[in-house]
Amino acid sequence: MSTHVEVRPGAYADSVALLQVSREVQQVAGVAAAQVAMATALNLEVLAKMGFDLPASTPNDMVVAIRLDDDAALGAALAAVETALTRRSRSTETATEPHRTTATALLDAPGAIVLVSTPGASAAVEAMDALAAGHDVMLFSDNVPVAHEVALKTYAAQHGLLVMGPDCGTAVVDGLGLGFANAVEPGPVGIVAASGTGCQQVLCLLDHAGVGVTHALGVGGRDLSAEIGGAATREALRRLDADPAVERIVVVSKPPAPEVAADLEQYAAGLGTPVSWALLGAGRLDLTAASEDLLAEKPTWPVDGQARPSAGPVRGYYVGGTLAAEARQILDEGAEVIDFGDDEYTRGRAHPMIDPTLRLERIAEVGDGVLLLDVVLGHGAEPDPAERLAPAVRAAVERGVAVVVACVGTRHDPQHRERQVAALVEVGAEVHLSHAGAARRALEVSRG
After folding, report:
1. Which residues contact 98 (CB under 8 A, 6 or more apart)?
2. Three-state SS for 182?
3. What is the pLDDT of residues 155-201, one digit of tens each?
4. Architecture of domain 303-446 in CATH?
5. Full-model pTM
6. What are the DSSP calls for 19-77, one per residue?
7. What is the third-level CATH fold of 2-91?
8. Looking at the domain that runs over 102-292, which CATH code has it been given?
């Protein structure tokens, strides 16, 4: 095994584009690992942890780092780098000079929602520019300091604006999905979500039951914390209540601060639109049960395949933070639950719904008991999650591990939920649409 590392001075591409380049190079036969990234301090730290020796560089340089199982594959790997970079460069060419600042860009986009996805430490500056120009913000960035979030949401509340985020991964506005959003039909339900994958679970359950959603306003996972106080949730509730197309509202959140939840429930009681609550925590309903409360008749949630009993611990390895929180609520104390989308795992890395490498490495280490996994579909997520997950599941099953999967998606999603489910069932997984159902089934399987 050998490594190749080169620095390309002054070469630039955005992080999402370089992630895709890295993934394409990793598919070359003979390549064990590949990372193409800008030489920022954070990216250099990640490369060092991967075992690469790095030459001198500046943040304006691009680093191409490749580990090879077969030295003869280097030429093909470098050719793949050039091909991917060239293709993405052409796809981003525009006929006009791009704007240099958020404020100047907004002069050409009155009424637009501003999507901010810069690194967390810098995100508040761009978000505040947008708010000052009178625009709502979807703050996709994570690792944003709490003090920055408080400042942004305080300003927004004073000016009747909405800050969706930080770490807002999912939203639907007037039927248009933003971030990691599932494709659903419009309908009478409006969602306020201090949760990304929790929102997606509710979207998909309602879609399966034939109920549409016109708006799903993400507010960031910390919005119902004591520090933030539900500022964005209150504004989102006000907006949905004022929308005549919304007949029912549901609020979805990871476990909230009790005093914040009580304050919001009191506020919601004064609205004209009925509000339901899907707040995780001890003694509260899970997301499936909360979704069923919105329906006139409880449907049968689909289950495909059948996991064989495998005595041993349940290990929940997640790409969705809210689903991981729900798993902790359902599973017993002996279960191991890891959210690979947590900030500690995404510093310098893409979200695991885009790059599942860390989770796949952990799955390969499991030799007994039950694996409980989530597969989250929708725009922005991996184009074919089962392509990489199915071989890992097959290998786990062959080691005697039972695998139960919650596949959160709709028939309209670009990954085609039916195709993803079929691929996972073929290699021995049991697949549920309801994550709560999958978690309870994992417990049952672990007990034989």
Report:
1. none
2. coil
3. 999 999 999 999 898 999 988 899 889 999 999 999 999 999 999 99
4. 3-Layer(aba) Sandwich (3.40)
5. 0.84
6. HHHHHHHHTSTTEEEEEEEE--HHHHHHHHHTT-------TTSEEEEEEESSGGGHHHH
7. Alpha-Beta Plaits (3.30.70)
8. 3.40.50.261
